Amino acid sequence: MALAEIKQVRGRAVYIPGDDIDTDQIMPARFLMSVSFDGLGKALFYDARFGRDGASKGHPLDDPRHQGATIVLANQNFGCGSSREHAPQGFHKAGFRAIVAESFAEIFFGNSTTLGIPCVSLPHDQIEALARAVRDDPSLELTVDLERLEVRAGEAVYPCQIKPSARDGLLRGEWDPIAQLLEGQAQASALKDKLPYTSW
Amino acid sequence: MGKSLFTKVWEAHTVRTLPDGRTQLFIGLHLIHEVTSPQAFGMMRDLGLGVAHPERTFATVDHIIPTAKDARLRPFRDNLAEQMTVELTESCRRFGIRFFHENSGNQGIVHVVGPEQGLTQPGMTVCCGDSHTSTHGALGAVAFGIGTSQVRDVLSTQTLAMAPLKVRRIEVEGVLGVGVYAKDVILHIIRTLGVHGGTGFAYEFAGGTIEAMSMEERMTLCNMSIEGGARVGYVNPDETTFEYLKGKPYAPHGEDWERAVSYWRSIASDGDAQYDDVVRIDAREIAPSLTWGVNPGQVIAIDEAVPSPDAVPEGERPNVVDALKYMKLEGGKPIKGQKVDVTFIGSCTNSRLSDLREVAKHVRGKRVASGVKALVVPGSQRVKEAAEAEGLDDVFREAGFEWREPGCSMCLGMNPDKLVGDQLCASSSNRNFKGRMGSPDGRTVLMSPVMVAAAAIRGELADAREVFALKGT
User: Fold this and answer.
1) Secondary structure (3-state) at A103
2) Of A38, A73, A108, B19, which one has the greatest count of Cβ atoms within 10 A?
3) Which among B16, B24, B44, B259 is the top mutation candidate for probing chain A, defined by the most A β-carbons within 10 Å of its own β-carbon?
4) Does A85 touch chain B (CB under 8 A)?
5) Alpha carbon distance B469, A114 (integer Å)
6) Distance of CA B468 to the CA centre of its chain
7) CA A12 to CA A66: how far, in whole Å?
């Protein structure tokens, strides 16, 4: 399965403030009532964005100045809670191609990487600086550079972090591991036969 | 130098190192349900993949299934719920996957079913498209939640690409106070270490307090590891574990049993194992606890005041202000006495027979306060059957609780059991996130099942020690 090599993501950004934003907020459970991932882009952060009457609550995602943004800025422990892949699927379907946050919950990080959405980390002060810069000039383009491990915005250059294995997979176009796992299938079956519990 | 259980199990299940440096890890037990798995079968259709080892996957239906008896007749009234169940049923049939469906007598919440069937065993790798898979670590398995693409990976290869975790040993010593349960222990741990303190770690729960716990108490503990950021939580297998597994339907029998116990003993952490971190907790400091905010680390003791924004460090202030606003609580005021609309006893955290027995013991002869909707949802059909055999259903009904059929129910409100508007629910579940129980403004307060029962009886958040006159023995 040939996948694109993801070396850089360049685009405008939107800041979604708050620590510990959980995947129930990102994708409320009622949007999981489906046998597919279709249509999840519109459901992204639905309850934080819209009231019961469907009126906008003025969430950053609905700010006209940030329409067309492809990079999310966020704070600590982004994507905690439920393992629902519907959350990163929602970001992907809404057009987002990278997330820059102080830190990520582990399952969300893995699910995002497998969809080809790099999740890179920056310290609190730099996230805040980027959030201010984007607010002051919504047309500002950010570059998430996985080769040089930095986030650039105008004159600012911030060294960023990402798990080495995720970076490696993205750079080499192997962020979805299914092809590699299938290659190891014979070895996996051999290991299965050696495990004591598979015989009882 | 000795090794931890995590390291031993990881090494035993390592197929190879992948080009990106991760491990191709063999998965011993795979559990699936109707919400996160149908899409995986769709992905496999697109890629032309089959199921590699169907005998190592088991299915049940739990998230969307109604818990009112008449609503369980098929087709379900909710067309999407019906479609999801049909999709799972057909995928299981096509690939020969065993399915504990609603007429099997074995249906239930996936994390209740795995252990009670004896499917989950020490020294296994276990995964499921559900973050509370950490529950199975109670039996000494390395168990964790995965996304749907990974469900596809396990179905089609019985393996996953994973990076190993660090291991933090959490030693709890001392005797728990009156009215303090396993739920309070894990809430206290999350309060102490934070909701993301466990990121990158597997939690090994150890020490005298944990060793004294029953298997079901250990499940409550491991269940909420993920709420502290730790994808894996486990307890080393011991006599309590072996005793629990003996005679379970899928546990080893006859000659296999002795071989199994010897393997299980061998994978427990060595006495001189090295850990990346060790944390010590004094059990005597743990009080009956509950959440006041919108994540499971925002915890106080029942007799404490809700935190005031002025009293917390500046960095935390916006989160506290936001949580208080959502919960409609005032900082600095007691949480006790806050009116409740709904009470929920159930979920993969606290819906097992021992939970129901403990609550029934205290509510016998008491009445749910008027105006409170009180639900008891057993974790599985087996739990329900066993509880009914003891007459617990009558105790609950006579006290004014609704006795329901098994499922995840209000914990995530994907079935008809939802909060309405900004109702406040005292809940034995695991997540108090905004909108978690099916209403975008609904409010959840997490606590032990006995504390939930106390809230149901009083009609407000209450100290179970007072409501039930609990005394030390």
Assistant:
1) coil
2) A108
3) B24
4) yes
5) 53
6) 26
7) 8
Q: Which residue has the tokens 């040089």?
A: A148
Instruction: Write out pLDDT tens, residues B65-79.
Output: 999 999 999 999 999
* Per-residue model confidence (pLDDT) at position A1: 60
How far is residue A90's CA from residue B146's CA, in Å, rounded to a whole number? Answer: 17
**A150-192 pLDDT, tens digit each:** 999 999 999 999 999 999 999 999 999 999 999 999 999 999 9
Q: Would the CB atoms of A184 and B150 count as touching at under 8 Å?
A: no
Which domains, from first to last, does chain B contain? 5-162 (3.30.499.10), 166-285 (3.40.1060.10), 290-467 (3.30.499.10)
Residue B473 has pLDDT above 90, yes or no: no
Residue pair B137/B236 in contact (Cβ under 8 Å)? The answer is no
Give the model confidence (pLDDT) of B24-62 as tens digits: 999 999 999 999 999 999 999 999 999 999 999 999 999
Q: In the 8-state DSSP scheme, what is residue A122?
A: -
The DSSP result for B211-233, as a single string, is: HTS-HHHHHHHHHGGGGGT-SEE
CA atoms B129, B84, B250, A187: torsion sign: negative
In chain B, which residues have their Cβ closer than 8 Å to the Cβ of A185?
52, 157, 159
Query: How far is B112 from B133, CA to CA, in rounded Å?
Result: 10
pLDDT band at A200 (very low <50, low <70, confident <90, very high): confident
Domains of chain A: 8-175 (3.20.19.10)
Phi and psi at B334, nearest 5°, equal: -65, 150
Contacts of B299 (CB under 8 A, 6+ apart): B187, B188, B190, B191, B289, B290, B291, B292
Task: Take residue B106 and report the two structure tokens written for it.
Answer: 């074995």
B66 alpha-carbon distance from chain centroid:
19
| pLDDT of res. B62 | 98
Q: Which residues make Cβ contacts (< 8 Å) with residue B70, sequence separation at least 6?
A: none
CA distance A35 to chain B (A): 6
pLDDT digits over B174-203, tens only?
Answer: 999 999 999 999 999 999 999 999 999 999
